[in-house]
Amino acid sequence: KSHKNLPPSPPKLPLIGNLHQMAPGPHRALQSMAQTYGPIMLLHFGTVPVVVFSTVEGAKEIMKTHDVVFSNRPFLDIGGRLTYDARDIVFASSGEQWRQMKSISVLHLLSKQRVQSYQQVREDETILMIRTIQQANESVINLSELINTLTNNVISRVALGRKYERNEVKAILDGIVELLASFSVGNYIPWLGWIDKVRGLHRRADELAKDQDDFVEGVLQEHENKKESHVERKDLVDILLEIQRDNSTGFQLERYMIKAIIMDMFGAGTDTTSTTLEWTLTELLRNPRVMKKLQQEAQKVGQGRSFIPEGDIDKMPYLKAVLKESLRLHTPVPLLVPRESTKEVKIMGYDIPSGTQVIINAWAIARDPSIWDEPEKFKPERFLNSPIDYKGVHYEFTPFGAGRRKCPGITFAMVVNEIVLANLVYKFDFGLPGEEGLDMTEDVGFTVHKKLPVRVVATPCEQFDDCKG
Ligand code: HEM
Hints:
By secondary structure, the chain is of the alpha+beta class.
């Protein structure tokens, strides 16, 4: 028994703690538990104590007031095996190495100027996708798959310099996503970690880590062997190798670190971006009024040209509001990435011991009726003439996190989302095939996807009066 004032806890079962209460998906389950136990709860995932925050005040305490204390990550066994023992950026604990690697990603790889320099890549890939849709000739298309291929291709060309024919990266990524979504007993009941071994989880993770390493090693060698004169535009691997060679940051960037950073870009950047577009299009199909208003904005800006270029996106405030509303209602990573306290602190009257895992239910906060008017409705208008954005200073809306651990890929992700969405609604009108309804079921994993892909019939816009604005 301690004399600490710990947050309220729901009853738990021996051994598994509260894990059995996580259906139908942890973000939804935790939201409804918070209605009974309050905005700060102490849960037990197996034997691991986890404090869950579900209000804007709590989010601000963790990601602003006590950001330094909570900028550590817990070690997750499977995630660690896939990221050079958690020595990447996403899963790394908050030491000097993480700080240096994060700073390289923010200043050299994902800065605004760097992201801008890849405009052509995004435009090319968007045009390619439009052509594929046109060629389908109004037959049913799987839009989810097309979008996922596009985001994968964009990151591939930006990070590695080219697309890979046999789509090796995608096979590896699919394996990683599947593995991260599978439940690891060892993460929560450490002394039962052997169960993961018996289930073959360790073997699969180690095999995948090897495939991943072989693949990135091949990419690095290809870059080291290429003739400088053939370099059209520097990709992220070129930049990282240059930083390593010149030691320009004063930090010894090891080879495995370059590999870990590159795989983070894929792991953290592909699925999250395509999920955003998937839900956005789903909401547009469910809300014809919003779709029409967005198409009218696109027609006004496009002015009959064959494509809306990136330079014109700033003339589309409604498009930006639609994407924000989609990130609010369908926060792609609803519980952000878990953090861990590095010393004991008092938050909102409760003691949070050192080494406690912390989860912020950003999804629940973004649907809190005390903050948002009609929170369950898809109303992009709420973001028009509002200063609220996703850059990590408005704690009621943090789809990319905030503070030191904030996502460094915000600009990268949003310019892809914007150019793709603008041109999809500019070029096509979308309808559901035949008798198929719109399914909203979520598939819960690290990111929350649609369980079923978005299948639509795309009619070229010229044939629709509404589309002409
Ligand atoms: C819509 C797309 C995206 C969403 C919703 C998203 C969301 C997030 C979230 C919630 C976190 C954790 C933040 C926290 O702990 O407070 C994160 C971290 C991260 N994201 Fe993103 N992300 C997206 C796109 C990207 C892209 C495109 C990249 C890179 C190309 C990227 C790279 C990273 C990295 C490296 C981290 C780890 C940061 C750290 O631990 O210090 N993300 N992201």
